[in-house]
Amino acid sequence: MAKITINPERCKGCLLCVSFCPKGLIKKSEKLNKKGLNFAEFVLNGECAGCLQCAIICPDCCIEVHK
Amino acid sequence: MEKLFTKTESLYDLPTHYCPGCGHGIAHRLIAEVVDELGIREKTIGIAPVGCAVVAYDYWNFDCSEAAHGRALAVATGIKRVRPHNIVFTYQGDGDLAAIGTNETIHAANRGENLSVVFINNAVYGMTGGQMAPTTLLGQKTSTSIEGRKKEKHGFPLKISEMLALLPGVCYIERVSFHTPAEVLKAKRAIKLAFENQINNLGFSLVEILSPCPTYWGLNPKEALDWTRDIMQKEFPLGRIK
Question: What is the complex's ipTM, to 2 decimals?
């Protein structure tokens, strides 16, 4: 099963990854990063297929995908 | 664990200064990925524009030069003629390439300079505060067209890619968009083809990208991507122009 890691300090909270994840495995965090933005967060118990859509659309290159 | 996707070598590990949801970040990454896939990092020279991407050279791990506003293609012409074995590309916005730099753009294309151009069309001037650009759509509200662009007063959106396609020195022009991940991959293929054309000495190549500017369109990042698909593509249809 694949897994993504989102760098919370790099994320600007545009949430395009949330819009494009086909399984809805990314959500807006309740916490704030140092910039004061609600960053995107991976839902740990999900079934990520590693389709890369989140990483491809991310404008800030803060998503890494592992398998 | 095996890495399926990570930052490429040609992109520095730095946060960018762009607004959330801005298309420049995607375009920077695609260029860096293309440069690494073609194995040309050591001989690539990028020309940064004036506009939001004025410090693009801070983010790319290859040689870059800055140019005066609109003059990126004139500087690129000089560099390419002196160093013909280097791969030279310019990265320009609509205010840079289609407004103040129209003259340099048209003549570089007409001379058939062996260059690659990445043209970011977001229909406004981003850096200076969202003023009307030549590519602003009819009816679009900006800080200098508060009732929307009117054809009687401001003229029509400038389709510079279609204009350049008429010139015999131009070998490849394509318009792409970022509105879904699949379209981002198509944009990457177009940028790669523009670089390959230069490697094969085929002449002037340009890739126009319809890029979102959520801040000055007054939309959230996802709505801005939908706006490029639903509104902007009516005026600027996607596909290969030449």
Answer: 0.96
Q: CB of A22 within 8 A of CB of A59?
A: no
Q: Which of B16, B178, B184 sits opposite A60 (nearest CB)?
A: B16
What are the residue ranges spanned by the domains of chain B?
Answer: 23-240
User: Which chain B residues are within 8 Å of A17, Cβ to Cβ?
Assistant: none
Q: Are strands B204-210 and B116-121 parallel, antiparallel or unpaired?
A: parallel
With CA atoms as reference, report the closest residue to B23 among B229, B209, B217. B209
How far A2 CA lies from chain B's nearest CA (Å)?
A: 9
- Classify each residue of B134-166 as buried b or exposed e, where b means 16 or more C-beta atoms within 10 Å of its C-beta: bbbbeebbbebbeeebeeeebeebbbbbebbbe
> Domain B23-240 classified CATH 2.60.40.1180?
no
- Go through the domains of chain A in sequence order and give each one's CATH number: 3-66 (3.30.70.20)
Distances (CA, A) of B217 to B13, B93, B129: 29, 16, 11
pLDDT in tens, A16-65: 999 999 999 999 999 999 999 999 999 987 789 999 999 999 999 999 99
User: In one letter, which amino acid is B178?
Assistant: F
